[in-house]
Amino acid sequence: MSKTNRVLARMSAVALALLAATAFGDQQLLMDGTDTIAAPGLQWTAPKSIPPGAQMVLLYGSPDKPGPYIVRVKLPVGYKLPPHRHADARAVTVLQGNYWSAVGDSFDQSKLKKFGPRDHYTTAAGVSHFAWAETDVIIQEMGMGPVATLIEYVNSADDPRK
């Protein structure tokens, strides 16, 4: 088993353990049935690291600390995420809408693959990829910290932080 597959297997096991602990523990963060988009009390914010229009909420952990973290991201219809990469491997699940993604250093609509609700994919650390939201989309993304930079753009002109 490759190092990437071992990391992704460990991330999946941790995610399952977190969900089980949440469902059966004293704190019902995700499984209380009151809000299927995000746990009650959590606030969606506009992240500075991706182009305007998206919203994000941190559900678990912290990318700047050791261990797993889980975020959800809302993307409006037509949203394009330019080619970028992450320092850590990511596991993505589409919760709502039609989300298209592909590997590559430049945005090429013909390479995009469609992912719908309940679809899941992984992206290895350091792999350039890009995405497009055909509809309003919510994805859940899980990674392993610590990571110094959440996202690095292939073309620095695409980076909204600059």
Brief account:
The protein has 162 residues and is mainly beta.
Descriptive keywords:
162 residues, mainly beta, Jelly Rolls, 5-stranded antiparallel β-sheet
Write the layout of secondary structure elements.
Layout (H helix, E strand, L loop, with lengths): L2 H22 L30 E6 L6 E9 L4 E6 L4 E7 L2 E5 L9 E3 L4 E4 L5 E5 L3 E9 L6 E2 L9
Antiparallel strand pairs: 1-2, 2-9, 3-8, 3-10, 4-7, 4-9, 5-6, 5-8
Structure report:
With 162 residues, this protein is mainly β. It has one domain (3-158): Jelly Rolls (Sandwich). It contains one helix and ten strands. It has one helix at 3-24, and strands spanning 55-60, 67-75, 80-85, 90-96, 99-103, 113-115, 120-123, 129-133, 137-145, 152-153. Strands 1-2-9-4-7 form a five-stranded antiparallel sheet. Strands 6-5-8-3-10 form a five-stranded antiparallel sheet, with no helix packed on it. A hairpin with a 6-residue loop joins β1 and β2. The longest helix is centred in the N-terminal third of the chain and has 22 residues, at 3-24. The protein is globular, with a radius of gyration of 15 Å. The model is unreliable at 13-36 (pLDDT under 50).
